[in-house]
Amino acid sequence: MFHKILIANRGEIALRIERACREMGIPTVAVHSTADAEAMHVRLADESVCIGPPAARDSYLNVPAILSAAAITGADAIHPGYGFLSENASFAEMVEAHGLTFIGPSPAHIRMMGDKIAAKAAMRSLGVPLVAGSDGELADLDEARRVAAQVGYPVLIKAAAGGGGRGMKVATVPDELDEAWHVARTEARTAFGNDAVYLEKCLDRPRHIELQMLADAHNNVVHFGERDCSLQRRHQKLLEEAGSPALTAAQRDALGATATAALSRLGYRNVGTMEFLYQDGQFAFIEMNTRLQVEHPVTEMVCGVDMVREQIRIATGSPLGYGQADIHFSGHAIECRINAEDPDTFIPTPGLVTAFHAPGGLGVRVDSALYAGCVVPPYYDSMVAKLIVHAPSRPEAIARLRRSLAEFAVVGIQTTVPLHQRIVDAPEFIAGDYTVHWLEEFVSRH
Amino acid sequence: MPLQHVGQISAWFAGTDIALLELRGPGGSLTLRQHHGSITADLDENASCTAMPPAVLDVVTAASVGVFLHRHPLHEAPLVRVGERMQAGRTLGLLRIGALLLPVAAPRSGIVAGVLVAHDTMVGFGARLFELLPLQP
Fold first, then answer.
1. What confidence tens digit (pLDDT) does each residue in B106-137 have?
2. Cβ separation B124–A73 shorter than 8 A
3. Which of A63, A163, A193, B73 is the most buried (most CB within 10 A)?
4. Reported CATH class of domain A207-445
5. Rounded to an integer, what distance in angstroms lies between the CA atom of residue A6 and that of residue A18?
6. Domain boundaries, chain A
7. B59 class by beta-carbon count within 10 Å (0-12 exposed, 13-18 middle, 19+ buried)
8. Going from the N-terminus, what domains does chain B have, and what CATH number goes with each?
9. pLDDT, tens digit, 9 for 90 and up, residues A393-412
């Protein structure tokens, strides 16, 4: 087992990892910027090191500072959490080159899945269904026109190195393709330094379904079922469910079997999430995230498995110790991402939290680094809490969520709690009848 | 009283909670006053200067994560001592990261008024390491 783990992250996920380490008896090192000196993840860690000024590029993305912090504290492993350096293959390589363990997938797999074209090519060769589109990078606009005509409009032009909706443009008719092509390439070049793009058929009413995967270093692969992450605004997830109200157990099993076989052939290691679009009973792979997901708690709630603990165990070389038949799904879980934003305009609302009360009771979990008197800094992601509820059935989970949201009190700053309260009362949400476009329409209506 | 002695005494004075210090001797007298971290000095009429302008201590902070060393690992003597006059750029201490030793340099010329961190202590970015009484131009 590891002697000491450095957590290269902040906020609720740093706290989440500290909790798993504490239960495993592993001391932790928190790193922080000067803006986070009083943050809860710093207060609860066994040791802490300030690694730079507030800007993320100078602190949480500062690879030399993080490696230096590991060196001076004697940490022998680094957990990257999500975001920041978690999907940076070069960082993972440097961690290993310094004789430390990167708690996550291999650098080669991070790099492969970070390149969306390479990821799709790999999944195609492994028999995973894909969205219809180009076979790889588009050579020129003429090829884009040709492929678009084959698959039918609307189409998406997407950046090979993309993510979070950047470098992605829709062309609903042939006349829009020229502009979509140029804008997507320009955005991709600016955001990622790589203007390679590919084309996909744009599905009109898909759901976003993802599978939680876990693999050890001995080629044992399992899945922990699906999450439905269709409630998104500007490609950012706001509410997630496990399982999906749209899937049957048989569909989950079939998709899971395909996914585990693919990752086994790939020789994948540690956690990963395979993301699919689902429409008309068909799944189509879109990308794979080679890290712990923000929404992993809903999977933990229905499976009763600590994902971070599993990550750490696997990173030590331990075998899974169980198979797919040992994984059981119990009840239904829903997570709301509570952001420090105006619930109507979505403008970030950093500032002093003067009072904080987290809901509780049976089946209620709050993952947050907030406390009364803390300051939400303006420099980072606006998510400040995750409210997760678990109940025997989806209707009971919704009732529990409604009750918990009413108890949630964050005073001093505005949060998106009121938006979530409106969502849980919406008939479409209650019926489970929504697609990836529903939330945008719902927000514009309210 | 030579000016350098005034500077050295001021540096020592800066490290105390004393508000007023008067020194009298055959060569004259020196009065030091400390208020909110600012020091003023008055020499009597027979001395080579009449007064020091108000002085504010500079704090030298860690520009990197590291283990602070007040002396080089191969040497017994500290790199600097309190009261010592420094030229800008002179190495005051070291930050050790693994086998790497990073110098902590004086940002400007001055007198070392305090060493704020013990030898062989882990420090983060921005940690306060030294106080310097700047030498007036």
1. 999 999 999 999 999 999 999 999 999 998 65
2. no
3. A163
4. alpha beta
5. 9
6. 5-103, 132-201, 207-445
7. middle
8. 3-56 (no CATH), 58-134 (2.40.50.100)
9. 999 999 999 999 999 999 99
